[in-house]
Structures are given as C-alpha cells and as structure tokens.
Amino acid sequence: MHAAVVVFPGSNCDRDLAVAFKAAGAKVSMVWHKDSELPQGVDIVGIPGGFSYGDYLRCGAIAAKSPVCRSVAAHAERGGYVLGICNGFQVLTETGLLPGALLRNAGLKYICKTIGLKVETTASDYTSDYTAGQIIDIPIAHHDGNYFADAETIARLRGEDRVAFSYAENPNGAQDDIAGILSENRRVLGMMPHPERAADPVHGGIDGLALFRSLTGALATA
Amino acid sequence: MKARVHVMLKNGVLDPQGEAVRHALGALGFDGVNGVRQGKVIELDLAEGTTEADVTAMCEKLLANTVIESYSVELG
C-alpha cells in the first residue's frame, strides 16, 4: 500500500499520520499543498489534522481550493481512497467529497480529550478489523467538530450505512452523534477523532491501530 | 469598484456564538434581546468591469459554504 500524506501550511498531524501508515506497513510519501500531482501509484491519500491556512475564512475552506486538492478529488473520482482526519474531514466536506459541514462546537470550547467512539459499520475497508457496535477509545482535539447536514442527508447516510463512527457521548453537538462518515463508494472516510493518536502503546491506547490495519489488509490484496 | 459580501449562517443552523453573545448581553443588563446571529462581512476591492455575477460566483465557490451559510452581495 502506498499512502500520500498532504501537508498544508498549518497541518500538525501530518507526521503522526505518516508514522501510523508506516507502522501498518505502508510506503508513505509526503505531498506539499502546492504540488498539483500526486506521486505515481498512490492508493490512499491522507489529509491530516491541524489548522490548514490558519483556519482562515472557514476551517478547511482555503485548503479545499489548493492545487493538491484538485488531484485528491480526481483520485477519489477514479475510485481512490481518501482518509481525512479532523481538519482533513473539514477539508473533505469543503471540497464536496463528503456531504455536510463541521460547525463550531455547541459548547463553544475547544475540546481535547479521549472519548468513547462507537464503530457503526464494519462494511468498509477502514473498519473491517473492528466489530460492529464496539466502543473504542480515541482522542478528539477540535473546536469545529459539530457535524451538520440537513435531515434528508442524515437519513440518507444512515439508510446507506455510511455513518462509520458515532460518539458514545456527544461532546460537540454533532447531529445524530455523527463522528465520521463514508462516501457513497465507501472509499472516502472523514472523521473528527484521531485514530493516529491511538496507534502505539506510548500514546496510551492502541484502539486506532485496527483502522490502519484494516486498510493495509484491504489494499495489500487489492 | 467595491463589493461587500455578507455571509450568515442559514436559519435553522444553530449559531452557538450568537447565542453566547445573547447571554452576555443579558448578563450586562440588556433585557429583551431575543436572538443574536453572528456573521461576517467581506469587502472586495475589484477591477472595473467586474460584474455582480462574478461576485456571486466567488461566493458560491469560496466565500460562503452554501451547505450552512447564506450570502448577500452589495455593490458600490
């Protein structure tokens, strides 16, 4: 599996994500936001957490219009995998690769803590190594993680089994407790919690490991 | 020429910042503030000949996220 991790000015989880991909057995290339092409043979693009472009205008809005994001959209349209974590999830909604938007947390505070996350579906190459309904411990660290979409979109996401993760206890006001969603072809995943920060015993938890192992398992045989 | 773009959260989208401002106004003794919605104003300095349609396209593509925000354009 060849993973590309995008680096924007203001990204701060790019190296953590690269370490998690490598630990799961992937080859990793770092891609600068001004690069207009992805490296040859990339299976999955990781869009990391952080504060791309200082969160100016709206979180993820400027990053979504960057040269590299045009290539990421083309990669997704070809059926490529894209994983957006935290700010990466915000970028994916701003590009339109995933529906909805992330609003300011209902309590207005930046929240940084480990939370219980429910695995809603195992029918994806990101979640196949979990069991459905399993509660895993994963850190969140965001100010704008309050998932919003209209009622029709929420019903569609639920009906198509595209909610990958939900909060066991809603920390930010997200609609329907939604923490992470899949694209229609189930190859694009956006999530607010940080699995890459729970992927090594020194992190204090390894519940995020299975996500990276699910991916390498699926993409090694693809 | 100048254009001024107003961007607001759509009705029905919770505005926790506006709500916090409303609470703070109440705490200062300003009674009767029934609601506060907070938005942003973006001023554009544009080349002559830029049309309202151009500014609308800017709003649709970048300045507003129409999933959650509405916008209005004021020219001149």
Molecular structure report:
The complex is a heterodimer of chains A (222) and B (76). With 222 residues, chain A is of the alpha/beta class. Chain A has one domain (2-220): 3-Layer(aba) Sandwich (Rossmann fold). Chain A is 25% helix and 26% strand. Chain A has helices spanning 14-23, 61-64, 67-77, 87-95, 151-159, 209-220, and strands at 2-7, 27-32, 44-47, 81-85, 101-103, 111-119, 135-142, 146-148, 163-167, 178-182, 188-191. In chain A, the strands form 2 sheets. In chain A, strands 2-1-3-4-11-10-9-6-7 form a 9-stranded mixed sheet, with helices on both faces. Chain A has a two-stranded antiparallel sheet with strand order 5-8. The radius of gyration of chain A is 15 Å and the shape is globular. Chain B is an alpha+beta fold and 76 residues long. A 3-stranded antiparallel sheet of chain B has the order 2-1-3, with helices on one face. Chain B is elongated and about 50 Å long.
Topology:
The complex is a heterodimer of chains A (about 220) and B (about 80).
Chain A: E1 2-7, H1 14-23, E2 27-32, E3 44-47, H2 61-64, H3 67-77, E4 81-85, H4 87-95, E5 101-103, E6 111-119, E7 135-142, E8 146-148, H5 151-159, E9 163-167, E10 178-182, E11 188-191, H6 209-220
Parallel strand pairs in A: 1-2, 1-3, 3-4, 4-11
Antiparallel strand pairs in A: 5-8, 6-7, 6-9, 9-10, 10-11
Chain B: E1 2-9, H1 16-27, E2 40-45, H2 52-63, E3 69-75
Antiparallel strand pairs in B: 1-2, 1-3
Question: How would you briefly describe this protein structure?
Answer:
The complex is a heterodimer of chains A (222) and B (76). Chain A is α/β, with parallel strands linked by helices.
Q: Keywords for this structure?
A:
heterodimer; A: 222 residues; alpha/beta; Rossmann fold; nine-stranded mixed sheet; two-stranded antiparallel ribbon; 6 helices; 25% helix; globular; B: 76 residues; alpha+beta; Mth169, Chain: A; three-stranded antiparallel sheet; 2 helices; 28% strand
